Amino acid sequence: QVQVVESGGGSVQAGGSLRLSCTVSGLSFTAYTLASFLQGLWKGREGISCIFWTGRETYYADSVKGRVTSSRDNAKNTVYLEISSLKPEDTAMYYCGAGRLWSANRCHTPAYWGQGTQVTVSA
Asked: Which of 49, 58, 89, 108 is 20 to 30 Å from 33 by CA-CA measure?
């Protein structure tokens, strides 16, 4: 079966950086767009970054643009999300997802989700 496993979350001070990793198994990795969503307390999930299977096309939400870089290693079935200049309002559960749809202007809801990794940013 498909497994999506995130790692790399944790607690960090404002201004710091984190690198989140997401490894996918059980599907043809290069056939899928990989997405990163975040969900703050009492909020819905927001798609903040998507990366096409080639790794050359990416989408970033305005809320994180300039602070987030997504990359993927298709040989390792892994996608990475680097977040810099973290702010307390970035505190959220970060989810990785895999889906077949790609758009240059938004992230589509993935078909497969990971369990999420918590990021907590203190002032």
From this structure: 89
